[in-house]
Amino acid sequence: MNRTEYMETLLAQLRRVTPSEREAIRQEIDGHIEDHICSLLELGYDQQLAEERTMARMGDPVEAGRELNQQYPVVWRVLMWLSSLVLACMALFILFGAPDEDRSLMEALDNRAEAGQHIFLNQNPISTREPLDISFTVGDDTVRLQAISIGSGHFRELQENGSYDSIYRERMASVYADAYDRFPCGPVGRIELILENERGKQGTELLTRSRWWKDGSVQVPIGPEDTYVTLICKRFGEEFRCQLPLPKEDAP
Amino acid sequence: MKRRIWTRKRKALSLTAVTLVLFFLFQYTYGICLMHPVQARWEAEQFYGCGSTERICHVWDGAVGQHVTLSSNEHALLLIGTYSTLSGWSCRDRDAVDCSEAAPLYGGTLRLSDGAVEDVVYAYGQVNDAAIDKIQLSFCFAANETAPTETHIYLTDAEDWHEHNGQRYFLLRSDALMPAYAPLNGRPYQINQGMVWDCTLTALNQYGTVLAEIKT
Questions:
Q1: Which domains does chain A carry?
Q2: What is the ipTM of this complex?
Q3: Is the minimum CB–CB distance between A136 and chain B shorter than 8 Å?
Q4: What is the domain partition of chain B in residue ranges?
Q5: For B8-23, what is each residue's pLDDT tens digit?
Q6: Considering CB atoms only, which of A86, A101, A190 is closest to B47?
Q7: Long-range contacts of A145-148, Cβ-Cβ distance < 8 Å, separation of 24 or more
């Protein structure tokens, strides 16, 4: 059996290997054969004899091939296929599965990084507005108070008959806030803000938007003599409370 | 320098490890493909921001095809219905109650739906007053706008409650199966088909005296 026949017989036993693994095995065995032949040539053997001796020393190619085949169990290939399949499914979902969610996620990351870029105060008109730079944490979430304003708008009030009515108010304080999770892609929990005026009247607002970033403005009617409003955030045993001075209005 | 040989096993294990890390990140980011009901509970905890909770009790409700799990921590009570879909475990119906103050009774109600045909109302809560011996759930229900209003009343006794870390909890299932709630377009505040209202939890002592009441 010459070198080529030996190699072909051995490689024919490898049924569980990939073409790249087959090539690697070919190179490895070929290297061994080459080394052995070179050693014999250095000892004075001629080429043909050195090759014959080497082939005899390498053993039965069928047996060697079978043993090599056992070194490549199929379970690892299956695991690689499954992993690749999961990776491909995730990539497809991110690329095509939920474009709206992807957009929301990018928006959330953007808004998280840039405070005060998209302030929406549900008032019309706004007579005065001041930026705020107050942050606090509730559980895993960070809430940022970004602006306070005075303006007019509709306020949802509880009526005597137990129903809620939206009533137009000339003078209301409004606080804009947003919230995000401690981790950049983490979901934000339910956050309800309460804004209380000096007489104890309260307005509430549940922050909403997307899984990763929520915002909203909470409002409460105020009187002409009021100087501050109190913002309260309560959630499962945690409470944040702060007094916010009302912005000064320009004289008409 | 000796070159490291990447065997098939090594390649497979490395790829699997990377895939698992990315998969958990994917689950955490999108909240889908949850492989275990516990992950659906974590999702609900994240949704309410109530922190990690411990399981109190768990029942399988075949009528709506959901696992109903009551869990709690120091400040919150959480009731969720989880079910398995092709894209993993999901939790559509859920409710949480803040129980961080010292009230004799905390509780809530949750309407579990199979998403198509039938709904079931569950009541759950934490009983802090040792004198409370019974909890009564009552609610009104009308199958549609013209159907007569039905009042349903259910009772649970202290011996059926669950004890966990020295606290007493109850989970009560209404036997009434009702048509799935279907709000009518443009009329969300009127009595719609299958709407439940006036849900009340009443705590009673052994003589039937009302000790606490919660409107949910």
A1: 3-96 (no CATH), 111-245 (2.60.40)
A2: 0.81
A3: no
A4: 33-215
A5: 889 899 999 999 999 9
A6: A190
A7: A145/A175, A145/A176, A145/A177, A145/A231, A145/A244, A146/A115, A146/A116, A146/A119, A146/A176, A146/A177, A146/A178, A147/A116, A147/A119, A147/A121, A147/A175, A147/A176, A148/A173, A148/A174, A148/A175, A148/A176, A148/A229, A148/A244, A148/A246, A148/A247
